[in-house]
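Its record is set out here:
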Amino acid sequence: MISFVKKFAIASTLALTACSVFASDPIKIGSVLSVTGPAGYLGDPELKTLQMMIEDINKKGGVIGRPLELVFYDDGSDANKANGFGKRLIDDDKVDILVGGTTTGATMSIVPLVEKAGIPFISLAGAVVVIEPVKKFVFKTPHTDRMAAEKVFEDMKKRGITKVALLSETSGFGQSGRKETEGVAGKYGITLVANETYGPKDTDMGPQLTKIRNTPGVEAVFIFGLGQGPAIATKGYKQLGITLPLYHAHGVASDEFIKLAGPAAEGVRLPTSALLAPDKLAANDPQKAMAEGYTKAFMAKYKIDVSAFGGYAYDGLSLAVDAIKRAGSTDKAKVRDALEATKGFVGTGGIFNMSATDHMGLDLSAFRMFEIKNGDWVPLSK
């Protein structure tokens, strides 16, 4: 494992090398990511994506004539550490913009800091609390937990499912997901007949799953979490012989989930971005060329598959670069205003249309339902 100091030294050395071919100071992109810990398989592709993109952008001349420099810290999936690193990025590193916050907990620990300092922050976390209520300097790229619940319930409604058991993680993302799921269930004619939780570091969800199995009338199960926990729950689900339809939120949209859950993942359904199957998009789909381009570049460089999480980072940095270009500077207030004025921006997560009341800019149509079949992601018809 590369130590933080070594990681930072590598990043700094790369930045200095890049800066040597430019006449002006670098634009500093600050990032706090969960590269290790329970959320590691989310943060790792995010970091790889940012590094790949910045290297490519600098080779092409940078942004507004200046190179990009990535200054990042690994919070180890610990929101308390994220807060300390956020302070360091703002006070010591003097970054121009932040792209990061792998988890909701990490993001929300940084939000007060960027709001006070007046620095644009593009979060890579899923919970709706990141952008509701609207915070002046805070934006996000992933679809929200509320949208995930609605998309799942849309699919359940098509299948005639009305009685559902919810199993959610007690992390920030899971807590918010539980709240949002409870809030929209009635809209789709869904009744939550069981409502269980598990901790993000739990290694056995058997007791909760047994309760769900023994609850009368359950027609499907919805697991709301991220990182390794949902995979553990999925394996336990199959071990207990539960055969009901199983759904997950978008916190598991990665091939790593399939690897961790193994054969138990077969038949799982969840909403996520088009990035998981760009080759299956229609030729005239506006996201096809962009998603295929990112996928090809990422796989060529790292020899591993892409994930929705790397896509969130791709969108985050792309939106930041686009806003800086339109602002014509790194003036923080101007970049913030440019982000808020983003319209028709094609990303991996969808087409972003932001406004003063919407700092994400994606609607439910940006989400696509997938089912895991034969160890692969298969898009379901809309």
